[in-house]
Specification:
Radius of gyration: 17 Å
Distance between the termini: 33 Å
Number of strands: 9
Strand order of the largest sheet: 4-3-5-8-9
Strand content: 15-25%
Order of helices and strands: EEEHEHEEEHEHEHHHHH
Helix content: 40-55%
């Protein structure tokens, strides 16, 4: 399989993929989800530690990655930062049991583009991956609230990762618990446009 190929669903499969996860059962789970989407085993490189991830990053270019935040020799935040520095355009999905807004926000600031809880079922993991392959991202209400707490308005005095008025409107509706359908109707945007706006917000919040 080439580095980029297309499946029947018209998703462009970006490869190779880096999976950083130390639990064998979860490694297998992710490999199965990726296989169902059309990836071959040779497309996926698996690391179970920071050291192994560093070795793979030194020898391969990864346009897509799943990264656990809790590893036996440190935090996955270090892998996120390293990958973002080496490959600024990479799409990084956090796959973790940690769901506190502060941790997720730190991952986004480090360069993550999305977040999937390990407790979610395989269909949710696959949906997050499809969204990534369409250059979009999703956001949960608690993360929207966390971002708004740090960036109250488009004129945020910090000067970092400024949000547009449209970004703030989307975050506020999400934080208030509006459904995706309601947000689409309120803002007059398609689902794809909303997903792409969320990804743009994440990338704007990244601290180089």
């Amino acid at each position: 399989m080439s580095a980029t190929s297309t499946v029947a669903s018209k998703l462009v499969l970006r490869a190779p993929i880096l999976v950083v996860e130390d639990e064998p059962l979860l490694q297998t789970r992710l490999l199965n989800v990726l296989s169902d989407l059309g990836y071959q085993r040779d497309d996926v490189f698996v690391a179970d530690s920071l050291a192994q991830a560093d070795h793979l990053l030194a020898n391969h270019s990864f346009p897509l990655a799943f990264i656990d935040l809790s590893l036996p020799d440190g935090s996955g935040l270090a892998v996120i930062s390293r990958l973002r520095q080496l490959h600024p355009a990479a799409y990084i999905l956090v796959f973790s049991a940690w769901s506190t807004p502060t941790i997720i926000y730190r991952a986004i600031r480090a360069g993550a583009c999305g977040f999937v809880l390990k407790e979610r079922d395989d269909s949710d993991v696959a949906a997050a991956l499809r969204c990534a392959l369409r250059d979009g991202a999703t956001i949960e209400p608690h993360l929207a609230r966390e971002i708004l707490q740090h960036h109250q308005s488009p004129s945020d005095a910090s000067g970092e990762g400024l949000l547009s008025q449209e970004d703030v409107a989307l975050l506020r509706l999400t934080a208030d618990g509006w459904s995706l359908r309601e947000i689409r109707e309120k803002l007059g945007l398609s689902r794809e446009a909303i997903d792409q706006t969320v990804l743009k917000i994440y990338r704007n919040l990244y601290v180089a």
